[in-house]
Amino acid sequence: MLSDRIQTLSPSLTIAISSLARDLKAQGKDILSFSAGEPDFGTPQRIKDEAIKAINDGFTQYTAVPGIPELLEAVAAKLKRDNNLDSAPSDIIVSNGAKQSLFNLFQAVLNEGEEVIIPAPYWVTYPELVKYAGAVPVSIETDEIGGFKITAEQLRAAITPKTKMIILTTPSNPTGSVYSREELEALASVLEGTDIIVASDEMYEKLVYDIDFVATASISEDMYQRTVTINGLSKSVAMTGWRFGYLATPNKELIAAMNKLQSQSTSNINSITQKAAIPALLGEVDTEIEQMRRAFEGRADEAVKLFNDINGLSVLKPQGAFYLFVNIKDISNDSIEFCKELLQATGVAVVPGIGFGSEGYFRFSFATDITTIREGIRRIEKFVQSKR
């Protein structure tokens, strides 16, 4: 009954773990969940006020598929102000989160059997959407020694005549790694003279610690032309449920193709969200973003120390985002079983590393209050001690 295409997809492991934790908590069990990929802060009031105004003004009809003109202008202004990118409003399509932006991109450019290079650990959705488009995910392993980032040599070795695209995530979900300008320049030099597309997922751009964020497309004119920048407001402005993402590329043919696809699927995103996003894009809630960033950085510092004090576990301090990718290889090489036992024994929910393409780790979200973080790590320590 089901299509072969839909059966290539696997359920999202992160959503599955979060849902299980919620269900157990609803049953009255003492559950501490560190599986969620969303901030624990509320959406800034300025954004909510703009949404309320849009509702009261009756701004509730369909809009143009890629977004209303003033929204596209705000995205272009943001890309210029923050990333020094000269994107025109016509280079931009607004979608229901970065996930739809990626779906549109993959469906528009990938053909059966073409290869997409994906550095691991990776966000769980990348290989699934690549497979759904009929293409082949090609994983490049990274580790702590290289800061969970691929090198130019690794990229060069992975490229074949079938390579159509590479996905870069900076800052990374799940590791928090951020590519420096020098690292991006090294990768860019490998890609020169090829037709390989770069999909650069920069969703956590505003949440970086002790490092300057550099947009992939800003590296050179060559990288600007080949890069599709994917971003949004879900993480940096605590707007996960509002569903706002966007992509930008100077490739007019590609923009037209993705616009056509979205027009035949979801059409425009929520009109209220479009209005509400504008002040965030124009920098009007930067103070709130910085307060959130500082809170995340403080949590990261303490959580990293607590984990590294546990015999058998280790973790790198993240350069961005709000996750720790904790190494459990001295305890277990079966992250699914480890996380299952941890949840059953302690009520702590984390996400197995295998879901991100790297066995021997788990992802721990510190997007929750510090008291809960301390208690969660205390329970994890007790569990690990019982395994040694």
The Cα radius of gyration reads 21 Å
Secondary-structure element pattern, one letter each: HEHHEHEHEHEHEHEEHHHEHEEEH
Percent of sequence in beta strands: 5-15%
CATH fold description of the largest domain: Aspartate Aminotransferase, domain 2
Average pLDDT value? 95
Order of strands in the sheet with most strands: 2-8-7-6-5-3-4
Give the fraction of residues assigned to helices: 40-55%
Describe the global form: globular
Biggest sheet details: 7 strands, mixed
Number of domains: 2
As residue ranges, the low-confidence spans are none
CATH class of the largest domain: Alpha Beta
| Corresponding CATH superfamily of the largest domain | Type I PLP-dependent aspartate aminotransferase-like (Major domain)
Indicate the CATH architecture of the largest domain.
3-Layer(aba) Sandwich
The tally of strands reads 12
Total helix count? 13
By secondary-structure content and strand pairing, the structural class works out as alpha/beta
Amino- and carboxy-terminal Cα gap: 48 Å
Overview of this protein structure:
The protein has 388 residues and is of the alpha/beta class. It folds into 2 domains: 6-43 and 286-387, Aspartate Aminotransferase, domain 1 (Alpha-Beta Complex), CATH 3.90.1150; 61-281, Type I PLP-dependent aspartate aminotransferase-like (Major domain) (Aspartate Aminotransferase, domain 2). It is 42% helix and 14% strand. It has helices spanning 13-26, 45-56, 69-83, 97-109, 125-132, 152-158, 181-191, 221-226, 252-263, 271-281, 286-308, 335-346, 370-387, and strands spanning 32-33, 92-95, 115-120, 136-141, 163-169, 197-201, 227-232, 245-248, 323-327, 348-349, 351-352, 361-365. The strands form 3 sheets. It has a 7-stranded mixed beta sheet, with helices on both faces. A 3-stranded antiparallel beta sheet has the order 9-12-11. Helix 8 links the parallel strand 6 and strand 7 (227-232). Helix 3 (69-83) runs parallel beside helix 10. The mean pLDDT is 95.
